[in-house]
UniProtKB/TrEMBL annotation:
Pfam families: Orn_Arg_deC_N, Orn_DAP_Arg_deC. Keywords: Amino-acid biosynthesis, Decarboxylase, Lyase, Lysine biosynthesis, Pyridoxal phosphate. CDD domains: PLPDE_III_DapDC. GO terms for biological process: lysine biosynthetic process via diaminopimelate. Pathway: Amino-acid biosynthesis; L-lysine biosynthesis via DAP pathway; L-lysine from DL-2,6-diaminopimelate: step 1/1. This is Diaminopimelate decarboxylase. It comes from Methylotenera versatilis (strain 301). PROSITE patterns: ODR_DC_2_2 (PS00879). Homodimer. Transmembrane segments: none annotated. PANTHER family: DIAMINOPIMELATE DECARBOXYLASE, GROUP IV DECARBOXYLASE. Specifically catalyzes the decarboxylation of meso-diaminopimelate (meso-DAP) to L-lysine.
Amino acid sequence: MNSFTLKNNTFHVENIALTSIADEFNTPCYVYSKSALTQAFESFSAGFKDCDHLVCFAVKANPSLAILNLFAKLGAGFDIVSGGELARVLAAGGDPKKIVFSGVGKTEAEMQAALNADIFCFNVESASELQRLNDVASFMGKVAPISLRVNPNVDAKTHPYISTGLKNNKFGVAYEDALDIYLQAAKMSNIAIHGVDCHIGSQITELSPFLDAFDRVLALVDALAENGIVIQHIDAGGGIGICYSDETPPEFTVFATAMRAKLGSRNVKLVFEPGRALVGNAGVLLTKVEYLKHTESKNFAIVDAAMNDLMRPALYDAYHDIKAVQPRQDDTEALTYEIVGPVCESGDFLGHDRTLALVEGDILAIMSAGAYGMSMSSNYNTRPRAAEVMVDGDQCHLIRKREQIADLFALEQCLP
Ligand code: LLP
């Protein structure tokens, strides 16, 4: 079922017309579908239903409290990378015993907060971090559950900015060093070895990099067992891609079947950290055409959303489909447009060369904006962040108010 459909020549999210959302909440505005979110979570989990597993939503993809709360109610765990994300998950009712804490730069304060919350596991990314975690836990009289994030040195075949499993990335420990570091960890009094972790990148659209990385992780798990270290869970990270235009990422069921076949009869829990795959196609960014500007070489549609609202096109040259919410059926000529925002940068575009029949005031939907959209937004050009709404059938809920301009400098002051 697709939650974003054209009915009576108007795009709807579930049963609500996107035009009515733009009227009520104004633009730019992120709109999420509760049923699309639910369906994505449930179909990801379904592949692992009769084996011990935990799906930890990667909070960075979309940290909205309402989304975290929805996933928590569905039984999700969470992958966090900061004390801020920990606080969000707890505020949203997430179960701390289902939290994994990733990231290369955990501070002492973040370690303390996570130990106090009694999280499921720390994904440790270096020997120094391991030592620090042992010290912090010892000071607190606690034992920290850990996995080492190993870097399997496989090519995820994705954009270089979001590939993380190659030797030259800052993430994880080198595969060759992992056994030694585990042996050191085994001697630390305030560390308990629970798992092995690996995450090779994001927007991965082929199955083979996942399987190659998993093979290496399984070989390490077996080598650890030979050294008397029994692993209780394997965290295979996130990274499954979504379709933005014509990509064909692995289906969840195919992914699950292949991973389970590799796991064989080993008695370990499987942990995953999907982000984009659960939220990416469950959200759109609504924006209004402010001006049409025709120059000698290009036609520009200047819209009220910008790179500060959705940074992916500017940062990665990422493609997002752009649809007119009410495709024109009059004689307006379809032209090839640059869809650009009002920010003072030439890189401020949302789409190149889009053929659309537009009139000023039209509402556009930037598709597949549920992941790394709002979460990477900023206040550049002193632009208030967009409102966010979630549609549930024929109900529409405001889940984040639009920022007010005064909010943007409320923490600042001039010299006396
Ligand atoms: N686990 C770890 C340790 C991660 O670093 C990430 C993403 C994930 C899980 C979730 O990956 P996903 O399932 O969403 O692919 N801003 C970029 C994506 C950066 C991904 C960073 N790490 C983008 O907009 O494409």
